[in-house]
Amino acid sequence: MSKAVTVGVPKEQKTHEYRVGLLPVGVEELVRLGHRVLIEAGAGQGSGIADEEYSRHGAEIVSTAPEIWERADFIIKVKEPEESEWPLMRADQVILTFFHFAADERLTRAVMASGATAIAYETIRDSKGGLPLLTPMSEVAGRMSIQEGAKYLERPFEGRGILLGGVPGVLPAHVVILGGGVVGANAAKVAAGIGANVTILDVNLDRLRYLDDVMPRNVTTLFSDRHNLLDSLRDADLVIGAVLIPGAKAPRLVRREDLKVMRPGAVIIDVAIDQGGCIETSRPTTHHAPTFIVDDIVHYCVTNMPGAVGRTSTHALTNVTLPYILQIASKGLDLAVVDQPGLRQGINIRRGRVLNKAVAETFGLTGNG
Question: Which one from 73, 104, 258, 274 is the annotated catalytic residue?
């Protein structure tokens, strides 16, 4: 990638996706450094950002997505390219977005065939080994999971008809959270704040000790084994699937037969659906049709939960992505990964080769390229 590059921001194509990959301040910074920025008309509308705001800070507003893809060296998105965008990818392009390759073999092979370089937000590491670009969206999704779960527990949505926090003289709901990471901790905070009884299951005892220290007394921590999981499901009104193995498919913790022990009308929010889901009966849904029912259990499996709160999510995401964008645009990818070693782990596919071990193993591509 040359010193001065053309950065393209297409409008997101995923159903009810209201985020955008770059704020006007990002445009201003890139233009100040000598780069050209192309914004597809209407790309920021779902986040409350008018085309005029982008153009005022130096962006060129482009009317169609194909023109963005044709002219840009560096594509910045939020969600993985949709099938309609696959033919637009080029071998000399760098694409920075959430890819979640392990959940989609067709997307993986399409990017391989294009020769483009795919940098996945969700696998970039920081100096402490954390996931700095995934974290803010996990915070949003964790908090949203309780908001959505509370809604779908209502009878008009086929839920049990339970108020999450209860009222004096009536028990509150019991919320079971599978995974004590960023999603799980944020879900627990919100659920506990509303007044629900919360159980967090995890296999990491150090993490459970930490959560036990910082959470209020209506949050219980429990080691995640098969027996504890089943006991928790029996009492659950709301289950939050919050398991993450970076880059890899989520483990299926809840089996189809396990739904039989749950109360009819209980709700499952599978936040892990981006990585394939941690519930055997989960399948991807959209904000247009977010739920389905299996064995009397309501399943919510929207693959872009934070997209529904575009204003909040766009600002939270771009706060952490902009420094990486500026580094890649100005230094080129090869030099940027020297200065930011954790960025190298974000490169999932390059020149037809899968470089992320978890993705390669998922699809039997360990010897590719």
Answer: 274
